Fold:
Amino acid sequence: MEVELSQRSRQILEAIVEDYIATAEPVGSSAVTRRHALTFSSATVRNVMANLEEMGLLTSPHTSAGRIPTEKAYRFYVDSLVALRSISREEKKQIIRRCRQAGSGLSDMLKETSRTLSSLSNYMGIVVAPSFTSDVFRHIEFIRLGTRKVLAILVSRNGTVQNKLVETVREFTPDELIHMGNYLNDLMQGLTISQARERIQAEMKNEKNQFDSMMSQALQMSQQAVTMERDDIFVEGQARILNQPEFNDARRMQDIFQAFEQKSDLLQLLNCCMTAEGVQIYIGSETPVNRSAGLSLITSRFVTSSNTVGLLGVIGPTRMGYSSVIPIVDYTARLVSRILTAT
Amino acid sequence: MEVELSQRSRQILEAIVEDYIATAEPVGSSAVTRRHALTFSSATVRNVMANLEEMGLLTSPHTSAGRIPTEKAYRFYVDSLVALRSISREEKKQIIRRCRQAGSGLSDMLKETSRTLSSLSNYMGIVVAPSFTSDVFRHIEFIRLGTRKVLAILVSRNGTVQNKLVETVREFTPDELIHMGNYLNDLMQGLTISQARERIQAEMKNEKNQFDSMMSQALQMSQQAVTMERDDIFVEGQARILNQPEFNDARRMQDIFQAFEQKSDLLQLLNCCMTAEGVQIYIGSETPVNRSAGLSLITSRFVTSSNTVGLLGVIGPTRMGYSSVIPIVDYTARLVSRILTAT
DNA sequence: AAATAGCACTCAAAGCTCTAGAGTGCTAAT
DNA sequence: ATTAGCACTCTAGAGCTTTGAGTGCTATTT
Structure:
């Protein structure tokens, strides 16, 4: 869907989009000439605006109001008009400072990153932690908690720790648990978690193990531990978008908040954003989350030393400050990648 | 502040409070007689209402509107009027089912409990996990992640796992790490986490250890692990209170949401609710969180097998369905205690 | 022919007035 | 002590008008 526009039309469209982003009010023809010091008269602008409307780039809420950009206009703006603001020294500093204060472990760091994205952009920050499943196995360990309760602890190369309480069919001594641990650590060394899953499946079918009751127990326990699917996702700064005039209405807000409460669904939806490299921009109905709520999503991937991939970005209204948010997301993704790959 | 009221005044006050809870509209004198089939006339009710207003139990937004209960009235209602609805079989079932599906570990179970509280009450559910600090030490373990990076994993008796990435001054072999782990496990056996903290402090001052570089390293690492303060708190169903007519205003909402984003502050504030046993009710400005937002808080403690204490409850508008929420909170707290103490 | 000035027209938002009716407080009657 | 009756109060909402921002068309300029 290529849009061909004259130089002049582009200037005017840009002016309208930017005005609307700044004010959230329909933009009139004279507002364009006034605020952007263009050389043509408002009458000319009106002609152009009528054109743009016909092309589906603008709409007007009613005859005597100004015009509002459509999704198509935002798309065009983002693709070919926007002049990216370069990120300020101050902002860089803040991102670095807040992302570095890694706290205790990956998950805290990513949460803080999400907060930072939110506070710099004034929209919602979002971070999807790298998938545990595709991370590399590091260590498994069983700790006896009750007579027949064992806590399985699984550590990946990133330093992500998952734990699961397992009910066992009989009681195990600490020594037995250590033994089982050693066996499994050997078995899964160097595999990714998902490969480890398969390996365990295979071993369970192995006849040798089926008759060794302890080994089969060990495999069963580790299977439970390895199938945990708690992939983390951090959405921060939800309160901030209540500021946006388009979300004054309580009903719409509820929609949005509900969508963000079910984090597991969210994860599914966001998976598609992780395929491409670089900054991805989803406008309005293109957004995988809540297509009808007038939201836009700007994301970028980041990578870790164990080659797993995470996602970070900003969610805001379609009428979003693209020119400043895009560089922030871009810079943050690069920085986080850099931190996480520096072993 | 005891309030003495005649039988009749009490009846009328109860009717007004309940009407207002149901409708969120100011209650007029005739509404009281109509909806509650009382024997006196509206004129009588008017006299009584004037009294109640003078006593600070009612206010009217303006002359020709009905009356609204004050905080004081809710307090009195909760203390001496409310007829608690007994919890239905259906609700019990749901609570049991959802709390039991303990998922993998305490933290998931508590999150689901919070969700359950929210969906049954239609307000926000809140659960504060038992303080890690007062739980009993179970196990510590060090896992080598990079050349000078070690992951310390700390498990408490109720199965809570905390982990922290520690930078070490030199590289350690896996054997050394195991050795250090054994030493520390012995040292802290049977202590609570906070006692363990003190023990480590003490050992660090012990001259014997100061000259054994490995022991002093071990102590340092464990000290870092033991001082983690990530107490969990689950607030679920925030979207639900957008339904309440009193929160239609975006400004108020923002206040509230912001308050709940800073979970660490929240924890501090909620500590005071954990001192007393049984169901605690905080109305309006009594609520430790966001005193001015017209919220009420209903909480109850729960206990675990290792004698640590957690808190669960419901947060909603002052105009809350106390008669049904109180039994829900009470029942849930008892149930969770039962589950967590059944080893 | 392209750009612009001018002008009549449109329409929502804001202000204004009026009315209906819900609710009160007082007084007189029971 | 209670209640019926009534005058009074005050808001929410309906209907109306005004205002002014903004448009589209046309005639005029370049």
In short: The mean pLDDT of chain A is 91. Chain A touches chain B through 37 residues (CB under 8 Å). Chain A has three domains: 7-81, 89-131+231-341, 133-226.
